[in-house]
Amino acid sequence: MAQVLFDLDVLRSFSTGMALGSYARAADRLGRSTSAVSAQLKKLESQAGTPLFRRAGRGLQLTDAGETMLAYARRMLEINDEAAAAMRGADLEGWVRLGVQENLGESVLPAVLARFSRAHPKVRIEACMARSVELRERLRLGQLDIALIWEVKGAVGVAELPNRERLIRLPLQWVGPAEPESLDAPWWTERRLSGVGRSHEPLPLVLLDASCPLRATVTNALDRAGIPWRHAFTSSSLSALWAATSAGLGLSALTAFGLPAHVRALDPALIGLPSLPPMTLAMYRAQAEPEPLVARLADLLRDAVAEGKRAF
């Protein structure tokens, strides 16, 4: 039986179309005609030996085989692109200054740093893990080349910075223990038994300290809904917040991106709490036209965030 050799150009059209939600947009992005991309997809199905798509209204959905093919396509393209970057940048030297917030450290950085170091072994990365306020200040002072920062629309005291790229937009969610039903905390028992919207026990909050712009967003939402609240636990460390939340000291708020296993997002309707506004993860670069090393790191960060988003 002849060995199948998948065409990387075909796989790139396939993967790009799924990422953009449209093969017409994929054709435009890749500089091809729509008919050429359609021919590529037919070739891919022929090579796979099984249907990869099924009709869904006017669009297409992946079959189970298509989902499997997409996962392999992404891996093959990732290795190809990493090899190409390594050949172009094997002799590059210097250093890149990266800033990220704490909740992105475990969810984004490992894969990014591993791929970057393999492609550019002579480059040194200086990473700063800090709160959004500090990262913004470091960007203004020219102490960072690139940074990932979570933002809430309308947050007080958040100044605009140049060279911003929005990566993802996710709902801000109430966060509690992984198994809140098992809590014997009085505040949770009273709220659960009294019914949605009828609890008079002040809601205990587990939030970062006063420099966090998210605090006002959360408390303002509760005030507008007429829900009493109190600060039950405050810390400058996100890890400490998750420990307090998991222990049942109160509820916190963040997106579901990168949450540890011992906490989870809660449905606000089931616990009588208001919905919260969305958050945006933005990437900032110090320069509008960054150096090649910074541009490459930006590509890897963008890919890692997109991969993390696919988990939702």
Give an overview of the whole structure.
There is one protein chain. The chain has 312 residues and is α/β, with parallel strands linked by helices. It has 3 domains: 81 residues, Winged helix-like DNA-binding domain superfamily/Winged helix DNA-binding domain (Arc Repressor Mutant, subunit A), CATH 1.10.10; 107 residues, D-Maltodextrin-Binding Protein, domain 2 (3-Layer(aba) Sandwich); 104 residues, Periplasmic binding protein-like II (D-Maltodextrin-Binding Protein, domain 2, 3-Layer(aba) Sandwich), CATH 3.40.190.10. The protein is 43% helix and 22% strand. It is built from 11 helices and 12 strands. Helix 1 crosses helix 2 and helix 4 packs across helix 6. The longest helix is centred in the N-terminal third of the chain and has 26 residues. It is globular. The mean pLDDT is 85.
Give me a quick take on this structure:
The protein has 312 residues and is of the alpha/beta class.
Topology record:
Layout (H helix, E strand, L loop, with lengths): L7 H13 L2 H8 L3 H15 L4 E4 L2 E4 L1 H26 L4 E7 L1 H4 L3 H11 L3 E7 L2 H9 L5 E7 L11 E8 L1 E5 L8 H9 L8 E6 L5 H11 L4 E7 L2 H9 L5 E3 L8 E4 L11 E8 L6 H18 L3
Parallel strand pairs: 3-4, 3-5, 8-9
Antiparallel strand pairs: 1-2, 5-12, 6-12, 7-10, 7-11
Counting structural domains, the number is 3
* CATH A-level architecture of the largest domain: 3-Layer(aba) Sandwich
Kindly provide the name of the CATH class of the largest domain: Alpha Beta
Helicity range: 40-55%
- Rg (C-alpha, Å): 23 Å
Instruction: Please tally the helical runs, counting DSSP H or I stretches of 4 or more residues.
Output: 11
The fourth-level CATH homologous superfamily of the largest domain is Periplasmic binding protein-like II
